[in-house]
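HUMAN: Spend a minute on the protein record below and explain its fold to me.
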Amino acid sequence: MYNRIYIIGPVGSGKTTFATKLSEMYNIKYFELEKVSWDDENGNIKRTDEEAQKIFKDILNNKKWIIEDVGRDKFKQGRVEADIIYYIKLSRMKSYYRVTKRWIKQRLGKERYNHPPVFSQWIYYISTVNSYYKKEKSKLKSLEEFKNKLKFVNSKDINKIISKGE
């Protein structure tokens, strides 16, 4: 069992679902780094880097944690301190499909959301997917230093991990 788990993947890849399941299995609190970067409680305001780093350091001070993020450089220390890093592989087209499906469910009130599901939010999701895949090669290159604890997973792999309790 791992005590410090870092999950990376594009928007719509299932990071939060995976983190939630692992959190329940291992009784370890999970953290969405999107909520570290943005203050949703006070009007969806982007936090300063200093504010975000303070919150992030508080998370890392826990003995156990599960972190999920798109792999932003400013949160690299989490990858350094992680016991395992799961990188969720998902095609760009599947990511577009999932963020569109998510946005529709949010608009219909069938799924919770961090950001109001207005049309501009869907555009933001699509642009985030584009940005992620433009940077994916450099993201993968930056993970080479963690190859001893890096595990590439897809949906089937995630289901196996959850069912076996690995």
